[in-house]
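Hey, I'm writing a tutorial for new members on how sequence and structure tokens pair up, and I'd like a real worked example in the thread rather than a made-up one. If someone can provide the structure for the chain below, I'll link this post from the tutorial.
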Amino acid sequence: MGAGDIPFKTESGQKVLQDRSRGLSLKQRSLLIMADGRRTVGDLLSAAEGLGLGRDALEVLHAEGFLELRAPKPAVTA
């Protein structure tokens, strides 16, 4: 999980937010909501720190199958 990778919610991640079927804390839910496919891992790690969470919170959401990672798009040069 590199700082430039882009996390996005999986179907399971969307489902857990909709029906609250899994006992995520309010902070974990907030972090999962922020994984919108536009913010990078680095962005979410900063947000996690602001919530009082560490890197492990993001890793747990990934390990539980609530997040997938996408490599960043290469920069376009003119």
